[in-house]
DNA sequence: GAGCGGATCGAGGGGATGCTTC
DNA sequence: ACGAAGCATCCCCTCGATCCGC
């Protein structure tokens, strides 16, 4: 647990978003920040009631969404994300762990913020990513965390190659890369 | 200034959203939550895309809004109980057991008291619900009780999916949900 | 905590299926 | 005897981290 200081009005706002008693600040913030971006469609069409407040908030969120994707468009759709990877150099690295780290480094280079949202990923016990080496260390016995080059992040490293691919594939997919691009990355591990 | 406690990974996530040095937690959260009110209205009408995320947050806000101003008039019965469930999040859970637990958690959130009355349910030998894990353990060989999140209750978990649906359907029905709502919940298991 | 990489095996959880009971 | 309802065995799959090879 970490402690942060926030201004009173913000505090009250967050408290007002409590959905059920016993909910922790973390729970509420996680919900509000919705740090995952995923599929979209599905039958959510049934929403009918619309209050003033919602209308506003909804607009805000739309703005958010649009911003986010327009970033995505300029940064990623126009520029081929694969350009961020020097595959021949990567393939020369002596181990899959090294290649894994380089590839993650490339993903971070594409967009640090999208990476931050995408690397929220854990196993049944271990934390996989963190900016804090010790946090990873604390979540498992011998996870062998290593720093991702040119980024503030660390990853777990003590996994078989298949799992390294899964991790990579998850992050890339969460960041919105195309299927064939993800495939290319996973092959390169 | 107020102090709140949050989980480490969330802390790191928030920190990672820093835009410029010297930015306070409040600044970052305000930006992420978009709560400074203000502008926004304007011709946003043309927005078409609606992500799950928004839809969900919108639903949560509906609950909030209605609760707040309905203190006077109706109460929970009139609000769509389905608003208590974040279906997209639930559907992402990896197992039907997880989904089952989330769904029960939602039912509890709707009304702890009605839940308490509704969860009086047992099999021929096993106790299904209890606030006491050991009581469940004692009533069967390997019932695998698990805690229902954000509630004081435990449920039996070692059942096939069909039975999970039956249990859910029974509780929801006992709590007075409508047929179509119950159906929606059972499908989500 | 310091050698590093990572395949291999073991632990643990999920839940369908088959057995038991009424 | 037959069927329905319910229990929990047992298989499968996921994930962790030990341990061997370099």
TrEMBL record, chains A, B:
Annotated compartments: Cytoplasm
Residues covered by the Replication modulator SeqA C-terminal DNA-binding domain: 89-187
MF GO annotations: DNA binding
Keywords: Cytoplasm, DNA replication inhibitor, DNA-binding
InterPro entries linked: Arc_rbn_hlx_hlx, Ribbon_hlx_hlx, SeqA, SeqA_DNA-bd_C, SeqA_DNA-bd_C_sf, SeqA_N
Superkingdom: Bacteria
Domain Negative modulator of initiation of replication SeqA N-terminal: start-end pairs: 1-34
Gene3D superfamilies, A to Z: Met repressor-like, Replication modulator SeqA, C-terminal DNA-binding domain
Record-annotated membrane-spanning stretches: none
CC terms in the record's Gene Ontology section: cytoplasm
Keyword DNA-binding among UniProt keywords: yes
Main location: cytoplasm
Keyword DNA-binding: yes
Example of a GO biological process term: negative regulation of DNA-templated DNA replication initiation
Function per UniProt: Negative regulator of replication initiation, which contributes to regulation of DNA replication and ensures that replication initiation occurs exactly once per chromosome per cell cycle. Binds to pairs of hemimethylated GATC sequences in the oriC region, thus preventing assembly of replication proteins and re-initiation at newly replicated origins. Repression is relieved when the region becomes fully methylated.
NCBIfam families documented for this protein: PRK11187.1
Family recorded in the similarity comment: Belongs to the SeqA family.
Name by which UniProt lists this protein: Negative modulator of initiation of replication
């Amino acid at each position: 647990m970490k402690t942060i200081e926030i201004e009173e009005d913000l505090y009250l706002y967050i408290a007002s978003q409590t959905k059920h008693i016993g909910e922790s600040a973390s729970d509420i913030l996680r919900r509000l920040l919705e740090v995952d971006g995923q599929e979209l469609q599905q039958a959510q069409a049934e929403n009918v009631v619309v209050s003033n407040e919602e209308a506003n908030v909804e607009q805000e969120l739309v703005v958010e969404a649009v911003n986010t994707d327009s970033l995505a468009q300029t940064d990623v759709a126009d520029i081929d994300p694969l350009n961020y990877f020097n595959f021949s150099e990567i393939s020369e690295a002596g181990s899959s762990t090294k290649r894994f780290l380089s590839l993650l480094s490339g993903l971070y280079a594409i967009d640090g913020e999208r990476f931050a949202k995408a690397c929220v990923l854990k196993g049944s016990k271990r934390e996989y990513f963190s900016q804090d080496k010790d946090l990873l260390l604390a979540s498992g016995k011998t996870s062998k965390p290593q720093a991702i080059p040119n980024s503030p992040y660390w990853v777990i490293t003590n996994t078989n190659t298949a799992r390294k691919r899964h991790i990579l594939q998850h992050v890339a997919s969460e960041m919105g890369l195309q299927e064939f691009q993800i495939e290319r990355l996973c092959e390169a591990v």
